[in-house]
Each structure stands twice: as structure tokens, then as C-alpha cells.
Specification:
By secondary structure, this protein is α+β, with helices and mostly antiparallel strands. About 35% of the residues lie in helices and about 25% in strands. InterPro entries: ATP-grasp (IPR011761), ATP-grasp_RimK-type (IPR013651), ATP_grasp_subdomain_1 (IPR013815), Rimk_N (IPR041107), Rp_bS6_RimK/Lys_biosynth_LsyX (IPR004666).
Length: about 325
């Protein structure tokens, strides 16, 4: 099996902190998978009927891989999306798809889709400058979470604790960048400094980790200095995570859930989730799980185990049964 990772840096420029890409490459070797890393800048696209010459890397024709894993997340540019779309139309399986990546990159759009499906999410509001602070107080209340429309690993997320603090922040943003796309989100007090990261693969919740900020910070991201520990996957957690991934079209996803008294709210979904903290806390081999799913999805013979992958339909039936069982326990 052959695959590509599309990452912001190519193989010769990988930074040491790019844990996920290094792990994927490392485990791919163990699984007898040929995996190459490329950056979008290495690609050239031509729209032509001659598919074999329509995509070049470093100016040269390349044999197409069996699968592609985009690892750019919120930093996915228009050009990178164009590459993914092009590969999809050439019949290459992309995990995740261009459509799902574009959807979750826009946090407001993703929230709109989840709300449409009646899934529990924090109240969310799009900022319009000049900001009507009284309206925000009436619709969302304070404290309020302020987010950039696109961001990852906790970047671009702030907590305004009071009306005055929020007003100062909005005036600063308007003065520096009046065209900034900002959303406001209801602050869920029960989840201050902690949340859940649920890792889903192919419609299954394979791991769940509780993240804690270990201090006064309201953000619990492990990448920002927080810590992680195993958390049981209850029927409600599994249903919320798998439903979110399904609605947003994500084959591999990191679903963040907020504690809301005895239940949960969906904070956001990640199309290129980090898993360093997850592997450290749970001892799970995430790349191996992902590659196993890809083999099943593509129906490619697994030579390492000398068995053929199970048909995808069996997996789908099992997931459906889990969802039906979990619905009775989930938040309406």
C-alpha cells in the first residue's frame, strides 16, 4: 500500500515537534506501507483529460498513491484544497475529504450544521463591527468565549470575563483588523479548564481523553501545557462523537466535548487532530489504527497478518447498533 501525507513542510524540512507526521511515517514502515511526505508547494496541477500528466511533484510525474492524508488542518489554503480535490477526482482516497476539511475549517459553518441536526452545542454568534455589547450580553452572556473563525490547538481562543473586558477587546480588534472574522460562544462553566478529546476513526470512537489545564487557564489543550488522562467512553460520549464525525463527513476526527453538568456539549471537530497527548495518556498506537481502517476502506490485503480485511458493511452495522443503543442516553 502506498500513501502520501500533504503537510505544510516537506520530508526534508519536518520540524521535530511535528510528532504526528513522524509517528505516521514510523508506523507506516512497520506496517510495510510506503508513505511519502510532501508540501503543497511541491505540487503543480493541470486540468486536462490526460490524468497521468495532470499532477506533478517537483516538476515530475508521480505514480498516484492508494491514499492521501492531508495534515494541514485549519491552515489548509485554497491551493492545498485544490490539490486534494484534484486527487479525489483522479480516484485517490483522501482521508479526510476536501469537503469535510473545508467545512470544519469554518467553525461557524460547522456549528450551523451540528445545530441543524439538533446536536447539543454552545450558543454561538457571529461578530459584526461595531459590536453591540448589550445584544451580546442578552444573547450569549458573560463570560464569553471569543474565537477566530479558523484556528487549532487552542490558538485564537480567548475568554472575556466581563462586559468591560469584552468591549475593550472588540475595540482593539476593530481598530487593528475591522474585517476579522470572529465568533462568540457561550461559556460552559462546568468545563472551565477541562474537556474531552474523543478520537474517531471510520465511525468508531477508539479513544477518549480528559484534558486539564492544570491551572487557571480555561483552555485544556495538551499542546498548550495541559495534561491528559483516560476517560471512559460512555454511550452518550460515543454517540455524540460518532454523530459529529458522521454529520461533518470526517473519517478520522478529533471531537472536543465540553462538560455540561451531567451531560456534554460539542465544542468543535478537528479534521487533522493531534494525538501526541492521546498516545501518551492511553498507550494507544493511533497510526496503526488509522492504517488498519484505510486497509478495510480500500479492501487491500493485509500481508503482515496474512488475512484479508473485513468488509466495510460489517463495521457499518456494528456502528449503527451502537448509535441506536446510545441514543437513549444522549442529551436531546
Amino acid at each position: 500500500m502506498r500513501g502520501w501525507i500533504i503537510y505544510k513542510d516537506n520530508a526534508s524540512l519536518l520540524r521535530q515537534e511535528a510528532y504526528e507526521v513522524h509517528r505516521l511515517v514510523e508506523v507506516a514502515k512497520e506496517e510495510n506501507i510506503e508513505l511519502q511526505v510532501f508540501s503543497p508547494d511541491q505540487f503543480d496541477l493541470t486540468v486536462t483529460r490526460d490524468d497521468e500528466k495532470s499532477i506533478l511533484i517537483d516538476g515530475k510525474k508521480q505514480d498516484l498513491p492508494d491514499f492521501v492524508m492531508p495534515r494541514m488542518g485549519a491552515g489548509t489554503t485554497y491551493f492545498a484544497l485544490a490539490i486534494i480535490r484534484h486527487l479525489e477526482r483522479l480516484g485517490v482516497y483522501c482521508i479526510n475529504s476536501s469537503n469535510s476539511i473545508e467545512t470544519v475549517k469554518d467553525k461557524l459553518f460547522a456549528q450551523q450544521i451540528l445545530a441543524e441536526k439538533n446536536l447539543p452545542t454552545p450558543d454561538t454568534m457571529l461578530v459584526k463591527f461595531p459590536v453591540d455589547v448589550d445584544l451580546v450580553e442578552k444573547q450569549i452572556g458573560f463570560p464569553v468565549v471569543v474565537k477566530t473563525l479558523s484556528g487549532s490547538q487552542g490558538s485564537g481562543v480567548f475568554l472575556s470575563k466581563s462586559k468591560g473586558e469584552f468591549d475593550d477587546l472588540m475595540q482593539l480588534i476593530e481598530a487593528t483588523n475591522p474585517k476579522a472574522n470572529i465568533i462568540l460562544q457561550q461559556f460552559v462553566k462546568a468545563s472551565h479548564g477541562r474537556d474531552l478529546r474523543v478520537f474517531t476513526i471510520g465511525g468508531r470512537a477508539v479513544a477518549c481523553m480528559e484534558r486539564n489545564s492544570n491551572g487557571g487557564n480555561f483552555k485544556a489543550n495538551v499542546s498548550a501545557g495541559g495534561s491528559g488522562k483516560p476517560h471512559p467512553i460512555t454511550p452518550e460520549i460515543e454517540w455524540l462523537a460518532t454523530q459529529t464525525a458522521s454529520v461533518l463527513g470526517l473519517d478520522v476526527a478529533g471531537i472536543d466535548l465540553l462538560f455540561d453538568q451531567e451531560h456534554f456539549k460539542i465544542c468543535e471537530a478537528n479534521s487533522s487532530p493531534g494525538f501526541e497527548g492521546l498516545e501518551g495518556a492511553l498507550g494507544l498506537n493511533v497510526p496503526k489504527e488509522i492504517f488498519h481502517f484505510i486497509r478495510i476502506r480500500l479492501g487491500i490485503f493485509d500481508k503482515s497478518n496474512n488475512i484479508k480485511a473485513k468488509p466495510a458493511k460489517k463495521t457499518a452495522k456494528t456502528a449503527k447498533a451502537v448509535v441506536e443503543e446510545a441514543k437513549d442516553h444522549a442529551t436531546p
